[in-house]
Amino acid sequence: MKSSVKIDSKGRKIVVDACNEPCAIEKGMRLIGGKWKGSIIYHLKDEPVRFNDLVRLLGGATKKMVDQRLKELEQEGMVIRRVISDRPLAVTYELTEFGRSALGILELLRVWSESHGIEL
Amino acid sequence: MKSSVKIDSKGRKIVVDACNEPCAIEKGMRLIGGKWKGSIIYHLKDEPVRFNDLVRLLGGATKKMVDQRLKELEQEGMVIRRVISDRPLAVTYELTEFGRSALGILELLRVWSESHGIEL
DNA sequence: CGGTATCCTCTACGATACTG
DNA sequence: CAGTATCGTAGAGGATACCG
Question: Which chain B residues are Cβ-neighbours of A27 within 8 angstroms?
Fold first, then answer.
């Protein structure tokens, strides 16, 4: 139950996130929501994947985006970056236990999304 | 498996969303992701709620935001808007069956989010 | 009460080119 | 291969005021 305090444009204090349950939903969304995050995690579900492979698998995301999301995921402790070899440089990304713990949600979301022929 | 074609700044065709499973995740996220959407649905889980009550419950969202999200949710068929009375004007929002079908995901997300003391 | 209308800022995302 | 650097734009989201 964390609240943070911000200062608005006129110097007044305002309380942000006087949390309750739905706030947990917002927090969760920040972790696995966001444009490509869920898909990245889902792609890592079985095995480590290399950076460029991930970019291709996502089909549409730029390297920059994938890079950004991966860094976020790393900071959040959901993903581990591993250098497999220099020369030629090879890097893989894989899920941590925490990352893996999100798979259930994503799988449920995927099934739900598919089961209603949801339009773009 | 829907693909759409866009034209880029230089007039070249590019294929967007050559879909696979994770794409379903992106689609799903568009429905229940987004800043306040999950929380709104979650707040409607038990009973219809009036507009201003919803705004207050969300604590931090502006009327404009809530209004926007509710319209999206209505279009997507997840929420029904119901005018209870004119004079004084009273409106409630409630979940459709489809909306209700998303609750499992949100509940799972909430529990997951809470179980790891996730930082803002 | 249940919204609209306005304005404004900020950052998310994409395109592109370049580097170790 | 695995990124970084740069630049540009759209639109998401907030503050505020007003309306039927």
Answer: 113, 118, 120
